Amino acid sequence: MDQLLYKFKLIVSDRTLVIRLLFVLLILVIFRLGNAITIPGLDTAALAQFFANSQFFGLLNIFSGGGLSNLSIMMLGVGPYITATIIMQLMTMVFPTLKEMYQEEGAAGRRKFAQYARMCTVPLAMIQGFSLLTLLKNQGLLGELSVTDQFVNVMIVTAGSMLLMWLGELITEYGIGNGVSLIIFAGIVARVPSSIYQMMITFDPSQIPTYVGFLVVALVVIAAVVVVTEAERPIPVTYAKRVRGMRLYGGGSTYLPLRLNQAGVMPIIFALSILLFPQMIATFLGNMNNSIAQTVGNVLGILNTNQWVYGIFYFILVFLFTYFYTAVTFDPDMIANNLQKSGAFIPGVRPGEPTSHHLGRIISRLTFVGAVFLGLVAILPLIVQGVTGIQSLAIGGTALLIVVSVALEFVKQIEAQVSMREY
């Protein structure tokens, strides 16, 4: 307790840190205000009924921070930007130039890489906005709109998505933590009061054991996420002694921490972003008058209607994206080269390529455990939903995983800032 009070005093007494935290709060307030501004021609009652009966749009609503449920100008959320980032990172596997830019050219290369992702976000936001608005119009939620009105609405939601992307980058640059993750976090947390209120209205005393069981599962999941996120494998590193002039340098020992879950919460976000596209296409094709399009839509719609198929694809995508994101962010060759250049080595392992292979084997085993854990936690709420029949538990479970991971990362960022200022 005394340690917490001491750190709190350090945070409050540090003017720069307080300004950063207030800046994050200001951006999140702007985000919530933008979510309250709706596009014209909205049928509120029909929209509420539509979202109550759709798990797919409930999950999509998580990424928009609740903006989709009231068709705000920020209804697309950061989804298009996340999708553009996924595409760009996939391209690094195909084009060595992009990989070199992202991993080896330092801050300048990453800035250029991020600029390409922003450019991809614009057409993706327009496509996604047009698809969603057309789909909702076919459901009778927007009324009759002219071509001009539809075009204006697409431009509005595209601009809202780009504004949200910019706000997220402002948080990353001038605030604390990852801006995109914090915006998703804020959107989920902002929906908690309304979810509790809705649960109180529809409260059924016979479901008390179910609610208690879900609360226990949620606490276990939170504890497991904390343990796995904090777990790491220390790799011992020894620095060789060097003689320069008449003095002896080096000879110390340290360790290289390899986290059990290098990818964090990003595989969950990536997997959901990919899963949303076939469901969106299925719903769009299912409302067309063409029989072939409806058949294709029905096949794709299995992801939305069949719980087992959806869960299997969800688990596989989370598992694969965990390996993919780890491969993008952790390069054993680069680490081995840096250790060799600095005169460091892992005891019992030769420098250079053997060190790279050694690190690759370790990170592969660690990533396997982390990927299986993330996949199981991701589909666990779907299993709970299948047992209890309560649809809101599935949406809440995915949100819980994101909230816990982002909160842990945010606390780490604050502690890092406090530690840096202590020294």
Structure description:
The protein has 423 residues and is mostly helical. The protein has helices at 2-13, 15-35, 44-52, 55-63, 79-94, 96-103, 106-138, 147-174, 179-190, 192-201, 208-230, 266-286, 291-300, 302-305, 307-329, 332-341, 353-388, 392-422, and strands spanning 232-239, 242-244, 247-249, 253-259, 344-345. The longest helix has 36 residues, at 353-388. Strand 2 and strand 3 form a beta hairpin. Helix 5 crosses helix 12 (266-286) and helix 15 (307-329) runs antiparallel to helix 17. The protein folds into 2 domains: 16-203, Preprotein translocase SecY subunit; 204-423, SecY subunit domain (Preprotein translocase SecY subunit). Strands 4-1-5 form a 3-stranded antiparallel β-sheet. The two termini are 22 Å apart.
